Each structure stands twice: as C-alpha cells, then as structure tokens.
Amino acid sequence: MSSNLRIEVAKEHEIPATAVLIARTFAGPDVETFLGNIDTPAALEATKVRHLRSWHEHMDETGRPSVVQCIHTDPATGTESLAACAQWFIFDKPRSPEMVEKPNYHQTGEWLSQEQGGPAKAEAIFRKMVADRAKWSRGRGIAILQFMATAEAFRRRGAATMVVRWGLEECVKAGIPAYLEASPEGVLVYEKLGFEVVDQSYAVWEGERIPCPVMICWPPGTKASEKRPLP
C-alpha cells in the first residue's frame, strides 16, 4: 500500500465529499437511479443531505462518527485527494429489539416522492435485507458496512482495503462481528479480508431478486457454535 495514503475519520464538513464519491460509485443500475444515486448536480446535492442526516442519526444514537476516509497526498505538490471512503455503522453494544428491527435510513426511501410510492417501493426493495440484518444483529453488538467507495484513480492501490480494515480493527477492539451484504462479484474480495458467507439475502427490483450474500467477519476467538443468529 502507498505510504501516501492515510486513514482519517471523516468530520461533519467532510461528509458531503464522501457522499458524492459514494453516489458516483453506485450510479448506473435502475435501482440506484430510483434511489437518487445519479451523477447530476441536483441529485448530488440531495445525496449530500441524505448522508449528513444519516451521519447525524448514528452520531446521536451511538456517539460514534460513521464515515472513514482514505486521503492521498501527492508527494510532488502536497495536494490531497479523497481516495476511498466507507460508511461503518458501529454498535458496540446490543440494541433494543425496536432499534434492531428499524431499517437503516438509507433503506427507508423517506426522501422519495410519496405520490409516486417511493418509500413503499424502497421498503419492498430492501425488505429481505432489513430482516436479515435484524436476524444477525439481534442480541449482539455489531458493525454494519453500509457503503464502500473508491475513486477511479485510486482503484487497486490499497485504498479500499484500508477503509475496510479500519472498521475490522474497530470490531476487534469492541469484540463484535462486522457485517455486510456483498455483490456476488465482491465475495472473493471480502473473503480475503476475513469475511465469510453466512446467509443469502437479496434486494428486489421490478420483480427480480438481486443477490446480496450476507458476509460476517467474526472477532478472534468466536466459537463455531456462536456463528449463528441469536434468539
């Protein structure tokens, strides 16, 4: 990994930049367009608002910031660039049943048009994923990797690995598992970082299931009998 890359927890004023990187990374498929991840000025401004709200909600609930960023410093000019970022929702203690069952803000579609059924459609898209998160979160502290994004110029240079490993190190400190829903193509990448497939989740778009394998990286010393949903 480049010595010109460093990890920092993103401050509130830096969230808009990480939100833009996430939106541009995920822009493209129809479901992302529906959710507002579109690379236009107006859509990006709305994306910044959504991510700031999400950041504040997690901070209010846990006292923890939820975004970590990888910054590149050009050795010739000293110019700094956002190379990668990740949104980690870390819950170092078990939550109430009500909080466990509550969808993450990014899964609610609250920002979408009520008249066109946006929130209801978002609920249908993420219903299975929300249920699976609750199933594996119940009764335990957990860290959920919601988004990970890398700027095109910094792909395959270690930046993505750094923002994921930051979260895994936080999980080791807290003694909690790390959770994510991967794309089928991303499974091998996350397996190399210590995650294992524990369940099969999916999103639903226009009647089709989009596979999202559930992967967990368990803290050291976790027994095989503990690698299961809790009652």
Automatic annotation (TrEMBL):
Residues 65-211 form the N-acetyltransferase domain. It holds the Pfam family Acetyltransf_1. GO terms for molecular function: acyltransferase activity, transferring groups other than amino-acyl groups. This is N-acetyltransferase domain-containing protein. It comes from Neohortaea acidophila.
